[in-house]
Structure formats: structure tokens, C-alpha cells
Amino acid sequence: MNLHRTTGKADWEKVKPADRNVFQKASAATHGFASPANIITVIGLGIVVYGLALVLRGDYWLGLILLALGRLLDIVDGVVAESTGTKSPLGELFDAAADKIGTILTILALIVAGITYWWVIVALILPQVIIPLVALYKKRKHAKIHPTRQGKLSMASAWVGIVGLLVVKALNDFQPLAIVIYVIIGLSLVLGLYALWQYATGRDQD
């Protein structure tokens, strides 16, 4: 859970300029924007968006593959940030924002495609909308915020639920699998609400 988490200071700022690796130098020169992890984050989000376009066109299986690949890169970017010594507050914010944007766009695509029930959409979208609003409020109050374990698990289970819904649709509404997916989405909602409580009470610092 600490792959993108920082102490409020970029990794390269803790290293003398002469001792920085090539990735740290590039990150420092661009104020953190051109870090390897941020580039991977953008590529991953682009792949997710293209996958959604295929889903809306009815090409569920290829869309699923691209969505899975895009989300895999969301894990890879944290590993890259850690291994290259380029973690930063901007990267942490960038990663969280890409998570939320990708998830909300995917949920909107599910609505447009008419893939599931309205209450399933509400369960998926509620934490993903409220948590960024709480985070923005806390930032305006100059409070430090960090992604929580429960928030990350909520996001992960939400994506398992999203992919599962698409698989159910691709399998012509296979109901036994649908029931399992609804349970996972319910778990995502519970974890998301718990993460929201952590943000609201300042326990995201733990």
C-alpha cells in the first residue's frame, strides 16, 4: 500500500543532484510530471478509455482484455515509482486521480451500455464520487491525505465487480456469476464507506 505513498517530499529531493539516477533527474527537471510512474499511469488510463470504447461498440471480450491491461498498469506504476526512487506527492495525487477518472468513466460506460441495474451503479459510484470531494476539502484545509488500504481494496473490488459485470454480459447474462459479482460490489461499497470514514476522521494518516 506504500508504493505511491509519500512523506510529503519527493524521493529525488532526498538525494544530492549529482547522485540522482536518470529517472530522478528527469522527474526533478519536470517537477515530477515526467516521472516513469506518471507516464505509465497516463498510458494505463488511455488503454482503459480505449477498452471502454470497444465495450460500448459491443466488443466485450477485447474491451475486457484492455480494461484488465489498463488496470494492471495501475499496479505497475507504483512498483516503478518505488524501484526508480521517483515517488512524490504529485505522483500520489496523479495515481489517485487516474484511479477515480478511470473508474467513473467505466461506470458511465456501464450506464450507457445498459449492462446492469441502477442500484449496482450507485454502489459502485458512491464511494468513488464522495471520497475525492472529502480529499479536496481536506486539502483546502491544508491537511495531509494519503490513500488508505481500505480505499485501495474498495477500488480493487470495484474493478473486479466491473470486469465481472462485463463477463456476465458477454456470457449472455449468466446469473450464477452475476450473484457472485453483486456480492463483490457490495463488499466494495462497504470498504469504500469505511475508507470515507477514515478520511473524514483523519485516520488515513495511520
Describe, in plain words, how this protein is organized in 3D.
The protein is mainly α and 206 residues long. The chain has a single domain (11-205), classed as CDP-alcohol phosphotransferase transmembrane (TM) domain (Four Helix Bundle (Hemerythrin (Met), subunit A), Up-down Bundle). The protein has helices spanning 22-29, 36-56, 60-84, 89-113, 118-140, 149-170, 175-201. The radius of gyration is 18 Å and the shape is globular.
Give the overall average pLDDT: 84
- SSE class: mainly alpha
Annotation, overall tally of beta strands: 0
Radius of gyration: 18 Å
Give the terminus-to-terminus CA distance. 12 Å
So, CATH architecture?
A: Up-down Bundle
* Residues in helix, %: over 70%
CATH class: Mainly Alpha
Number of helices: 7
Output the CATH homologous superfamily: CDP-alcohol phosphotransferase transmembrane (TM) domain
Annotated CATH topology: Four Helix Bundle (Hemerythrin (Met), subunit A)
Major sheet details: none
* Percentage beta strand: under 5%
Order of helices and strands: HHHHHHH
Query: What is the number of independent domains?
Result: 1
Which stretches of 5+ consecutive residues score pLDDT under 50?
Answer: none
What gross morphology would you assign? globular
List the helices and strands and how they pair.
Elements: H1 22-29, H2 36-56, H3 60-84, H4 89-113, H5 118-140, H6 149-170, H7 175-201
Compact summary:
Helix content is 73%, strand content 0%.
Fill in the keyword field for this structure.
mainly alpha, 206 residues, globular, Four Helix Bundle (Hemerythrin (Met), subunit A), 0% strand
